[in-house]
Amino acid sequence: MSFSAPLSIDAIHSTLETTALGHPLYLYQELPSTNREAYTLAQNGAAHGTVVLAESQSAGYGRHGRPWFSPPGLNLYCSTIVRGMRSTISLAHWLSWIPLISALAAVEAAQQVAVVSLALKWPNDLLLSQRKVGGILCESLFLTPNDPAIVIGIGLNVNVAPDAFPEDLRSIAASLSETSQESIDRNRFVAQFLLELEHCLDELRSQGSTRLRHAYITRCATLGRRVQVQFANQEQVTGLAEDISVDGALQIRPLSPHPRSQPMPLLDVRAADVMHLRE
């Protein structure tokens, strides 16, 4: 698909059922980055639930500052300010689960609006047939010591035609519309994503991560696969991804150096690049 109806605040609000997320909502034709704009708003005291949308980004970025393909009028570039962790869970638990449940909310929204079943690559990449269709980038700022503001950014390929991707992305990128005969309503998707995200945030606050962890595991394509993990210090570990811990870490069983040796102990991975290896 190469056509997509423009984003509209009125159209989003016409189906928006949230209590807080999307109130207020700012829509721009172009920004360098919705995350950068939302981060600035958060620094200046913007309320919980403030959402920044753009039809295009001139300097979109993902994890580690990697550039994000951001053509105009086709995709979703959306950043949400979240405040109010409250004291029902620990700060570390809150910060570790926000990226995972944000990705889970996007998967649920895709199922509801586009009837597309996406999978999750730990921690927060969205996959369609093993190709990346979107990702989540969360950035925190601590205006008070124990109650951070978090900017949850999502970049999602929605109505991009396969041949419209840059050549170096065509084999690894996908778009939601690939499985549909007509363009996907981005306004409805925004409203549904914000509703799913609000439900996940409310559940994490009030009930913890037990059910959310089970839901994430059900969708996680990383589990059961051989993976290569690269840490920030350039150390690499290859092993089998076995589970998600209660705090959201990916639990890896490193490959034993010798075939007959005892299994290696599980390694909890909390921050690293994870690559799915071919079987």
Walk me through the structure.
This protein is an alpha+beta fold and 279 residues long. It folds into 2 domains: 9-219, Bira Bifunctional Protein, Domain 2 (BirA Bifunctional Protein, domain 2), CATH 3.30.930.10; 226-276, SH3 type barrels. The protein is 26% helix and 26% strand. The protein is built from 5 helices and 12 strands. The protein has helices at 9-15, 34-43, 91-113, 186-207, 210-219; strands at residues 25-31, 51-57, 76-82, 119-121, 125-128, 131-141, 149-156, 226-230, 236-244, 250-254, 267-269, 273-276. A 7-stranded mixed beta sheet has the order 1-2-3-7-6-5-4, with helices on both faces. It has a 5-stranded antiparallel beta sheet with strand order 11-10-9-8-12, with no helix packed on it. Strand 1, helix 2 and strand 2 (51-57) form a beta-alpha-beta unit. Helix 1 crosses helix 4. It starts with 8 loop residues before the first helix and ends with a strand. The model has no long low-confidence stretch (mean pLDDT 92).
Summarize the SSE layout with pairings.
Layout: H1 9-15, E1 25-31, H2 34-43, E2 51-57, E3 76-82, H3 91-113, E4 119-121, E5 125-128, E6 131-141, E7 149-156, H4 186-207, H5 210-219, E8 226-230, E9 236-244, E10 250-254, E11 267-269, E12 273-276
Parallel strand pairs: 1-2
Antiparallel strand pairs: 2-3, 3-7, 4-5, 5-6, 6-7, 8-9, 8-12, 9-10, 10-11
Helix pairs in contact: 1-4, 3-4, 3-5
